[in-house]
Amino acid sequence: MRTNRREFLYHLSLSCGSILLIPACAGNDSEWRFFSNEEARIIIAFAEQIIPSDNDPGATEANVVNFIDKQLTGPYARHRNEYRLGISGIVSSSEAVYNKYFCDLDRDTQRDFMEQMESGKLPEEFWKEINQRTFFNMLLDHSMQGFYGSPRHGGNKNYASYKMMKLDYPHVIGQNRYVSKCATEKLRDT
Amino acid sequence: MKNKHVNAVVIGAGAGGGVAAKELAFAGLSVVLFERGGWATYNDHDDDELISQRITVLGNAFGPDDIRHPRVAVNSDGSTQVLRASQGEYSNNAACVGSGTVSYGAMGWRFMEKDFKMKSTYGHVEGSTLDDWPITYHDLEPYYEKAEWEIGVSGKSGANPFEAPRKKEYPMPPFAYNKSANLLADAAIKLGLHPFPIPMLRNSVSYDGRPACYRMRSCVGFACPVNAKNGTHNTVIPRAIATGNCELRTNCQVAEIIIDEKGRATGVKYFDENNRGRIQKADIVIVAGAAIETARLLLNSKSNLFPDGAGNNNDWVGRNLQGHAYTGAFGLMNYDVYDDVGPGATLALSDFNHYNPGIVGGGVLCNEFTPMPYHFSKIRPPGAKRWGAEHKDFQRNQFKKLIQLIGPFQEIPNFESRVTVDTGIKDYWGIPVARLSGTRHNYDLTGCKFMSERAEEILKAAGAVYTWQSVGGRGRSGGQHQSGTARMGNDPKTSVTNRYGQVHDIDNLFIADGSLHVTNGGFNPVLTIMALGYWVSDYIIKNWNGSKFR
Amino acid sequence: MAKTYLKGLIGTSIALFIFILFLGASYTWWNTATPDKTCARCHEIHSSHSSWTSSAHVEISCMKCHGTALENGFKSLSEKSRMVVRHFLNKPDPDDIRLSEEQILGTMERCRSCHQGEYAGWLTGGHSATYADIMLDETHNTAEQLNFDCLRCHGMFYEGTILDLVEPISKQGPWRMKDEKMAGKATIPCMACHMIHSKGEPAQRPDYSTPENVFYRRMRGNNALGFYFRHEKTHFTPDDLPKPVILSGKDTVQTPADPVYRLCVQCHAPSVWHQAGSSDDHTPAGVHEGISCMACHEPHSNYQKNSCDKCHAGKSKNCRLDVRTMNTTYFSPSSKNDIHTVACTDCHEQM
Description:
The complex is a heterotrimer. Chain A is an all-alpha fold. Chain A has a domain of 124 residues. Helices cover 53% and strands 0% of the residues of chain A. Chain A is flat and about 60 Å long. Chain B has a single domain, classed as FAD/NAD(P)-binding domain. In chain B, strands 1, 2, 6, 7, 8, 9 and 17 form a seven-stranded mixed β-sheet that branches. A four-stranded mixed β-sheet of chain B has the order 4-3-15-14. Chain B has a three-stranded antiparallel β-sheet with strand order 5-11-12, covered by helices on one side. The longest helix of chain B is centred in the C-terminal third of the chain and has 19 residues. By secondary structure, chain C is mainly alpha-helical. Among the domains of chain C are: 64 residues, no CATH class; 137 residues, no CATH class. Chain C is built from 13 helices and six strands. Chain C starts with a helix and ends in a 40-residue tail after the last helix. The interface between A and B is large, with 44 and 50 residues.
């Protein structure tokens, strides 16, 4: 019985103690689902160049990186390897061409870098496993989707792009029950 | 449990299949309607632009899914690639009850008389399989009328001076123009053209119990929240089921049509919703899976008498794959013309469908459906920046100033544009997948250039301060308006079916979709497909005597 | 033998007693500690927690509104364990985690315990309609067929579609609730128009030593408004809602500057042509142009019968008429001069 009590206490403390461990599940090395913090920084800088902030929010404020990160654990899971390779390609190319980390480049140089990448002019040695133009186009598309798509996919925070385009969202539109004016109003005399 | 023998199996609950199932069920035949997808509703993806049936970057809203339904494409350099269903080059329609009619733009066009007589009108075109249909517009006219009234089309007869003659008015009045349509109508009239409202498979007033369209801007690619967009899923298919004669089996993938030693179809092999292989025996088989899947199914249905696929002893199944080369022009006004009135497309011009100087055929020009934000991010004049501050500026300032005139150019069919089956790649159920190859006839580029020039002239006349053309006609054919792969014809050596959609040599095998089209008209083809659904069913009903065809 | 048995019994009892003490201590701690040490340890509700800390409800603990795992007995225990299972099995994206409709409606029952006046007002007004009231109404169902869009304005939290809710989907009745448990539930509950975790200050007494704080220096009150949009499953604050362009013929109508209007007009919306008075629209045009909805309609109950008295003296000095007896819908519902769009020229010649 002594043994049983000890065992009992042991199991009890284990089960109660493990509850305290649950908060640890929340903890994680990176704040992103797929990206490391560093990779996310690069994507944020890249996306910000694609849709810069001016009088209206840009890609960073619209949380475009969250869209990309989220989709990489969903329908874009097939692009994960490309992102890993492409991001390291960007880092290596930036070091080689400007002797600086991509995120530390000033805005104009960064833009310059991206234009080179868009035309395939970055040093080819860092782009053997992935084509730089293909990767650029993919990042371009994904950034645009993240900025102009519905916020339910992780980007377009606070409907920044819809507001910028002055799109009424949610639509202000009523029902048809009272007098359908569609067919009669404003019809041209054809 | 074994399936009971039925009179007819219809494969594909889309525009043609839905109609066929209903007609046969009403005539008292027992029907099983197979559909590889399920029921789709607005709630599935409501207004999500990135998962719609038009912008499919995050997947197809109404199927098919990327995993189970690959296709193969052959590039111009001979290399091949495996395509996912959500890729643009896949040439998707949908995989759900009603198929494309759930989410389409719903333009309800009748072809013109000359569209059935392209060779007689224009003569032979070198390197093409341009030919006349074995039926005329007048054969199909009563069936167009039936489709317009049963499924529901809004329009104004007589508004288009070029339209083919019609006996009866449209069941519903036309849609009122939006701001950009009014602008373009004025410009067109000034140029001596003849604008008119697009006939729509959409309720302009309450019809068939369902509400009238309330003109939401997000329409094409989306299902309708008030069920005002007419398709087969909310008209003929429920009526077919209500007769008690038609059983709709969703989530069933048909693998093969079984042809016996006498050259008759005896039924189909399919995989049910639990992926179990089953057999459904029937007296008549009607294939309506749209041009690519229909061709694929016929080619996969090999038997001793037809070693290359059902009806394919002459190698014409899968050939002449055509669609529509979309072409036109964009313009920017210097004031806002956007008024949030959907679906966006309301005005049409049929002046360029035929008898264009030096051009074979032509196409209708319409103001386009409202572009959604991500779609608009891709609409830029040639040479414009694709990203950065300028791109964003354009998005912000020009969105409400855009006007467009776009239309489907009637492609010149060619023999090498085709669907075959891949020997290596198989789908989830182990069925060889469709393989798309060939290119459009190089004539299409010429024709598209002509249309784009006309469109640009009209936009300039409307006062656009900047215009640019968007010329189609290159690359592989197919797309959502896919057709031609099992063309009808009087000569069994150069066609797959006779004038009634009955496969030559296989009496009880019919096609009732766009595969039948010899040429595809200069208009969206869905109403023609529905009319052919009625036409083929009518023949079956009149000639089927309970055990065989008279 | 008996001695060992007794010893064992005492030992077990002590262990049990300590265990109960431990449970009691944990339970007390869990219910009294600040949420950032308990509920909000979990990153999935981190954003809800941080918005709560800057909201008007910051002094009310999570449990007061969201309930505890134990209060509904087995039902809530099983619901909470299902949530834990889902967390480990499905690994839902934190961005996508939302309360279910049942949880939302359950939370709103608790609003009532503090906001009794508002609840009573709501109950007596048109916005307290239940699913049965709305979905089985014969006049509406025969005028336009039931469709998905109905739920955008009443039933916005419903997790199914119209097809799961009521049948038949037809203009011919009789109709019945397919989902019977919804029949008595509210279709426009508190959170249709209110966002609880939104920026605000808890109510507090003013500093009476500086009386102007109670009069002209009084700060604008927070009313935690937020329009719940069904398709995005989020709230839009009135500032984020679009200010629609409303027309009367070809002329633009000056819409009320009050942000509340933008919320009301989402459901009481004009047809796509944006004509004032079309469809369900009640944008004031005519003599009342630009006046906020709330100037005449009490919040929650929307009671408007006292409204004329608020602005119009008994007998108007200009026209020497009692506005309450003029030929408008205020006086008689069958009048063709709707109070929202009535203009002087409806009865008088243009001057």
